[in-house]
Amino acid sequence: MKESARPPLDELVSLQQAIVAREGSTTGPGGAGGISIVDAALIGFGADSFRSMTLQIYPGDPTRVDTADITGFDNGSGEVSVSGAMKGGVVPAGVPYKILTLRPAIAEVHGVFTVLPSAPEIIEPDTTQDLSLSISTVEGIPVAATLTAGTITITRVRAGVEFIAVNGLACTAANGRIFYAYTFPSAGAVWQPGDEYKAVFSGQQVAVGATTYALSNIRCKGIIIDVVAAVGTIAAVEAKLDAVLVTTETGGTITTDGNEQDVYINNAPAGVYEPLKVQIDFTEQVAVGDVVILRTYYRIFPGGFLRKKTEKAIVGVQDPVLIDIDLEPNRFGIQVTLQQTVGGPQDYDWAVVKRD
């Protein structure tokens, strides 16, 4: 059998650095119920750092490891907030953690079994869906184990507002699966197209022989779509696709006021859209100590939030005076902002080039 060569060490190091944004140990107790951790070493990393990444506590410890989506960061205290309570309640000082740039597809991997969540990413209203966890070996063979079914909570997110549709109801355990069958009703506007759902499995356990493993809170999510209505828009979409994209340019002047100000925003593109570049003229930035922060934000999920992608400080006099911000293809929304933190007020001319 021919064996493939091991990746070079520098490539392995680069991969690890790309996945792990930060690792350390907590320096104080987190929020009540386990909704955050605190590490003073994170102070000063910058507002909104780590948002949309994944927090993992007790990495490598199969009985205590837990993960959660990061929803906020306090730059003044080093507190990292997450989307749901971590297993075990308040996270004390001295707990090892990692901040990951990606969300693992497999919720947990133990020495003898894996836990794989299964939930549709796209759901039609008034359909019944099985939200489930499958317990198997790494090779995919069902494990001979005793399962504790635990509970599930399903939350609706509409225009940024959360509503608990299913609150801690019992799941069912059978044939190597833990599952909950739920109908997403449209009656009473409980579920509407454009809603996001988030499901959290809690209290599940897997007993293999004499050892019982308490699982982390495992999370799944998806969106609600009216497929019939979506199909009805195909003709309009095809017409857009058939049209020749035309390069256009628009621009203006922004006067800084110390706040983060929109240079350019396309909050909800109507169809085919290809942002290319934003150019900003720094001719008026004439003081050595002037500082301007440029940021880009992208929405990567329908109905989701605009998330920060890049941040760059422009310090002092610039030569050449035109600064380019290259934009990435995006379907759901893009924002470019400017904030003068030192100096000003000053006028900055800007232009955006796009194809639509």
Describe this structure in words.
The strands form six sheets. This protein has a six-stranded antiparallel beta sheet with strand order 1-6-3-4-5-2. The chain has a five-stranded antiparallel beta sheet with strand order 7-8-10-15-14, with no helix packed on it. It has three helices and 27 strands. The longest helix has 11 residues, at about 10-20. The chain is globular, with a radius of gyration of 24 Å. It is mainly beta. The chain has helices at about 10-20, 225-230, 235-240, and strands at about 20-25, 35-40, 55, 65-75, 80, 95-100, 110, 115-120, 120-125, 130-135, 145-150, 150-160, 160-170, 170-175, 175-185, 195-200, 205-210, 210-215, 220-225, 245-255, 260-265, 275-280, 290-300, 305-315, 320-325, 335-340, 345-355. The protein has three domains: about 10-100, no CATH class; about 110-230, Immunoglobulin-like (Sandwich); about 245-355, Sandwich (Jelly Rolls), CATH 2.60.120. Residues about 1-10 and about 105-110 have low confidence and may be disordered. About 5% of the residues lie in helices and about 45% in strands.
